[in-house]
Design brief:
By secondary structure, the protein is an alpha+beta fold. The protein has 8 helices and 3 strands; from the N terminus they run αααααββααβα.
Length: 162
Amino acid sequence: MPGFKGLARESGEPSAVYRRLREVFGDKRPRGRKIRDEDEPFRPGRDPLKVAGAMDTLTSEMGWTAPMAEANVAIEWRELVGENIADHSTVLSVADGTLHVQCDSSAWATQLRLMRHELLSRIAEHIPEAKIDSLTVSGPSTPSWGKGGRSVPGRGPRDTYG
């Protein structure tokens, strides 16, 4: 490749010019990394952490303690309320200190509403970091008759059921 041979200069002129400019204007680039006292190897406190300790530190520094405690309420729902209640209820969400639970029948929803204070005290006793102060219980979801591909304007299901 004869065209590329002229690109490389054989003389040391560019490097001499560069060195002279550095002498005149100074070199602002940092030269090497200085070792600080806290970077010193073998000093106390530089041992690797265990995973559990590192995760605890990370969650507290990032402010994830309350959201993780709220998630624990949903995970440990069966242990908190017992097998019988857990078979008929599901945690929907936890938001702003309110636990939203859906039951599979209106009878179970009524029963959980009556047990609200007992359930809240049990949650506060076992998972106090969650800071849940209210419980919203809903019954089973019903089908919506007003929306859908075959809905028509008018009286709706009343004229169907008689």
